[in-house]
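Example record for the data management plan.
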Amino acid sequence: MRGLGLFLFVGGMLFGGSSTPLFAHDTWVQTNANVVRAGDLIHIDLMLGNHGNDHRDFKLASKVGLEGCTLDLIAPSGAKYDLKPNLVDLGYAPKEGFWSTRFTTGEPGLYVVAHTLDAVHHSTRGVKSAKTYVVASKSLDNVSQDHPGFDKPLGHALELTPLTNPVTPMGPGQPLRVQVLYQGKPLPEARVAFIPRGATLSEGFDETYERRTDAQGAASFTPSEGNYFLIIVHHEEPDQKGPGYTATKYSAALTVFVPQVCPCCGE
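Corresponding structural encoding:
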């Protein structure tokens, strides 16, 4: 399997003997295209990184182990496919590269790629989630804007859920609204970073690329140009204890591809 496709950037430790801390990195997913013709394939990559500048750099770092994580694709019909058994290691060395697979779409509509990670390292439990969306269309010249279900939560412990369609229409000047849910309820005052690939966020709170959620857990960002955007939020529960751990840290990621030209209206 070749090609940089749907990058699932999975944060945490490298399992199987690695000394990398579980919380040194975040996870995300990303596709080679946000709109494909129904029946065509999408590339799906599982990646690890986002450690520099207080988890706000969109850079790769090492490669995650597969123990303790899930990777699924949810079709428009609701059918769920386990992608983890088909992952291929594209790294030359154990800590290089990323995992990759591909999936051939069938029915037209909205596809969701979802990932979770739950593990304990050095008495701290890390719970992570990541997802992204792809639309399969009967025609690339006439892409439907109606894709119900994009705002349906998947039930992750900490989750970023789009409030506006993250695929169609999407382009520069189109607001991207998300809601942060913690244990299924809106999380106010959460710090959400909308990180463009290749950009470096300023120290402290970046007024350009970061937002605080309102009382309903919602935050909004309007991209000024096309790019991949990694949306990240973290939440800590220092007193949340359990077997083998004395604190819990959560993170959630949503990857959105913003085209320079909207596939629906061509503007």
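Summary line stored alongside the record: Residues 1-22 have pLDDT under 50 and may be disordered.
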